[in-house]
Amino acid sequence: MIYTIPLGRIYWGRRTNRAARAVKAVRRFIARHFGVEPEKVIIHTDVNEYIWSRGIEKPPRRITVKAVKDPEKGTVKVLLVRQKKR
Hints:
Elements: E1 2-6, H1 18-34, E2 41-43, H2 45-52, E3 62-70, E4 75-80
Parallel strand pairs: 2-4
Antiparallel strand pairs: 1-3, 3-4
């Protein structure tokens, strides 16, 4: 399934670790929508690199990802839907 995850609320807090909080927010969002524990969500390196691409203080306001659940292992893989650089 393809999701557009809003990350605007990350900007309300301190700017010193926004990118790390954005990764955690993606993990929580996918876990909530798939009914799994956050530890069972596997974020692909492309998603991580896209979030960190503008540094620790300025993560993207939203990110579009594709989530695929593996029913045997009970894990969810999060892949990046190609985003154009701004």
